[in-house]
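testing teh design pipeline on a random one, pls ignore if ur not involved
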């Protein structure tokens, strides 16, 4: 472990708190009164289309950009260019990591370590260990300029972890990565959560967010439109569970029986299928009702709303998803 000064952290403070945060670029409003909180120990996905204001928010949190209004804090400490206490508690993985020309992997990490005031012996050991952990063993003396994009992202993560911060902020961690690289980042994020770290990541890749995040905040055009668990967002949108049944020759009385199942909102035929709209997963009840009516059920599947359905319903920006 690095020889950092032990830093007091309030157990009750949110890992990240953003309140009425605003940022303009000239006359362009990039962020308009954004508010949300990230709890300690969770993986929080900051989801929105290109240009929504994700990177602007992240750069303010990391102290690389000054807010035009509102406030942001990390574990209760004010974020911003002068936010030394906040900066000491976070690690930042940028969207497009860029490094000074001609620097080599290990020497640059050691330089960062000195910047953080880490004790040289412990720092050297930790830097090597971290390079190994991100899959860059044997690359210690290689010039960062020759690294592929995926290697640069891994290296940026090693750099972000160097001072063992409790909060990791990752801007589009899997952008530009191949499937193996994406899977590696996903597992690494899960591992970090397992160690009790808080991870705040931005993404426009919906399935990725759905796989790894405990909660999401949805941002569009500089406004945070919703913050919740994926499941709760689904409920909030009052999107329904669709139970799709494939069965042979369902008679009208069987349809009537389905309509009487508590929670069922509607039943319709769709080719050889029955689609049951319900306010929750009524699969077992639907199956029982059909069997009781003498219907042979071939298959039955409950479709919960995907994050994409919810996202589209909230942002209404179908054209920009995944771009
Ligand atoms: N340096 C800048 N100068 C002018 N406009 C900017 C600058 N950086 C970002 N913007 C604008 O602010 C908005 C939010 O950008 P950004 O935070 O990068 O969004 P995201 O990361 O969600 O794609 C966009 O409309 C973008 O064009
Ligand atoms: Mg961005």
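output:
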């Amino acid at each position: 472990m690095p020889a950092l000064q032990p830093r007091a952290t309030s157990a009750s403070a949110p890992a990240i708190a953003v309140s009425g945060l605003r940022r303009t670029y000239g006359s362009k409003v990039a962020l308009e009164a954004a508010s949300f909180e990230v709890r300690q120990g969770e993986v929080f996905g900051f989801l929105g289309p290109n240009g929504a204001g994700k990177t602007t928010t992240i750069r303010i949190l990391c102290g690389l950009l000054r807010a035009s209004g509102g406030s942001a804090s990390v574990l209760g400490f004010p974020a911003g260019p002068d936010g030394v206490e906040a900066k000491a508690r976070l690690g930042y993985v940028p969207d497009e990591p860029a490094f000074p020309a001609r620097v080599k992997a290990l020497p640059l990490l050691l330089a960062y370590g000195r910047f953080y005031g880490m004790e040289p012996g412990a720092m050297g050991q930790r830097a090597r260990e971290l390079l190994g952990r991100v899959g860059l063993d044997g690359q210690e003396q290689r010039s960062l300029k020759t690294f592929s994009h995926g290697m640069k992202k891994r290296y940026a993560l090693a750099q972000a972890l160097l001072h063992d911060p409790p909060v990791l902020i990752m801007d589009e961690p899997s952008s530009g990565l191949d499937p193996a690289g994406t899977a590696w980042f996903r597992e690494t994020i899960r591992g970090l959560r397992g160690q009790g770290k808080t991870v705040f990541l931005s993404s426009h890749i919906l399935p990725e967010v759905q796989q790894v995040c405990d909660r999401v905040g949805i941002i569009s055009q500089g406004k945070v439109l919703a913050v919740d668990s994926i499941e709760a967002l689904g409920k909030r949108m009052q999107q329904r569970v669709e139970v799709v049944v494939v069965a042979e020759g369902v008679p009208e009385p069987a349809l009537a029986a389905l309509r009487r199942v508590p929670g069922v909102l509607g039943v319709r035929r769709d080719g050889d299928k029955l689609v049951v709209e319900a306010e929750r997963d009524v699969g077992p009840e639907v199956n029982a009702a059909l069997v009781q009516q003498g219907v042979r059920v071939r298959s039955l599947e409950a479709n919960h709303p995907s994050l994409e359905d919810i996202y589209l319903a909230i942002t209404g920006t179908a054209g920009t998803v995944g771009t």
